[in-house]
Specification:
There is one protein chain. Strand 1 (5-10), helix 1 and strand 2 form a beta-alpha-beta unit. It is built from 13 helices and five strands. The protein is mainly alpha-helical and 326 residues long. Helix content is 57%, strand content 7%. The chain is globular and about 70 Å long. Helix 3 packs across helix 12, helix 4 crosses helix 13 and helix 9 packs antiparallel against helix 12. It folds into two domains: 5-184 and 294-322, 3-Layer(aba) Sandwich (Rossmann fold), CATH 3.40.50; 199-289, Orthogonal Bundle (Tyrosyl-Transfer RNA Synthetase), CATH 1.10.240.10. The site of adenosine-5'-diphosphate has 20 residues, from helix 1.
Length: 326
């Protein structure tokens, strides 16, 4: 029997950070390694055009994501790794979904509202219909689940709504995929720990997976903590939660010290620097090697694009009939 499918995408908008890793990327690798799923992971380059960007930088950003995928252990023999814009079926299905999606639903989307507030000079229609393209990305592959961070739940809910609407209007075709969350669905910013860690806040707010230990050390030195232990401070919770993901025993000892008020935050930061350095040393090496061999990355994507296109075109074919375009 065919394995249940999962699909997820990441925008090529720069370096990937610990939030991306603990909220999504780590989960991708675990799901792949479980052997239980037919895994599809892609680079959402069309989505990334909705933000302010430099066209000359885009290919480097695409390379950054595929090199990160591969260096973290996504394996083209086990997962289909592809580029969204290589498969026109995504935009074609998105158009049909546009005709099913009420404006009001999109107006409610918090990511749209956040981004529109952040880029006031560029509130483009693509930003508004972004979740509709995301629904097409997902439903073309008729997956059972979508591994994402907490901030994407609303988009997966909308995807289910669009699937239901389509099925009701045109006849049963799409499943209603679930979001698959990790144990740490939300990593917080180092400098403003009440906000999610996001590259849009600025480089000092995030720890990139490629950051060398001296950079991690400097960033953590500035990370917000508390003046004393036992105060349930969000910055402290964030640092200990991060450590917990890589070394549960060490985190446990610090949690105890935090409760006893004997904790020294400089010790937490030093431990976290070492732990992250070790956790990503092999990754940094392989990532650098892949960036120096872009052809290797391109070859992986080309093979993945072919596999993805087959699945996507088969779905779009049925849709074309069902909606009466043929
Ligand atoms: P950013 O906010 O830095 O631009 P993206 O929106 O490109 O990151 O996110 C890519 C993936 O990483 C999504 O699945 C998202 O849910 C996840 N993600 C991003 N930031 C975080 C975070 N701080 N905590 C948990 N998951 C995150
Ligand atoms: N919107 C997602 C993000 O900001 C990226 C994305 C685009 C995506 N299409 C998708 C995620 C389909 C999962 C499935 O991170």
């Amino acid at each position: 029997m065919a394995k249940p499918r999962i699909i997820s995408g990441i925008q090529p908008t720069g370096k990937l950070h610990l939030g991306n890793y603990l909220g999504a990327l780590k989960h991708y690798v675990e799901l792949q390694e479980s052997g239980k799923y037919d895994c599809f992971f892609f680079i959402a380059d069309l989505h990334s055009l909705t933000e302010n960007y430099d066209p000359k930088q885009k290919q480097a950003d695409v390379l950054e994501v595929i090199a990160t995928f591969l260096a973290l252990g996504l394996d083209p023999k086990k997962s289909t790794l592809f580029l969204q814009s290589a498969i026109p079926a995504h935009t074609q299905l998105a158009w049909i979904f546009n005709t099913l999606t009420p404006m009001g639903e999109l107006e409610r989307m918090t990511q749209y509202k956040d981004k529109a507030a952040r880029q006031k000079q560029n509130v483009n229609v693509g930003l508004f219909t972004y979740p509709v393209l995301q629904a097409a990305d997902i439903l073309l592959y008729k997956p059972f689940g979508v591994p994402v961070g907490q901030d994407q739940i609303q988009h997966v809910e909308l995807t289910r709504m669009i699937a239901r609407k389509f099925n009701t209007k045109y006849g049963e075709l799409f499943p209603e995929p679930k979001e698959l969350l990790t144990p740490v669905p939300k990593v917080m910013s180092l400098l403003e720990p009440e906000k999610k860690m996001s590259k849009s806040l600025g480089d000092q707010h995030v720890i990139n997976l490629t950051d060398e230990p001296d950079v991690i050390k400097k960033k953590l030195a500035r990370a917000i903590t508390a003046t004393e232990g036992g105060s349930e401070n969000p910055g402290v919770t964030n640092l200990l939660t991060l450590l917990e993901q890589f070394d549960a025993d060490k985190a446990k000892a610090f949690w105890k010290q935090e409760a006893d008020r004997t904790i020294r935050y400089s010790d937490v930061k030093a431990e976290l620097t070492d732990t992250l350095d070790h956790a990503f040393a092999a990754f940094r090496k392989e990532h650098a090697r892949l960036l120096a061999h872009p052809k290797e990355c391109v070859t992986v994507l080309e093979a993945g694009n072919k596999k993805a296109e087959k699945v996507a075109c088969a779905t779009l074919d049925v849709v074309t009939d069902k909606v009466g375009l043929r």
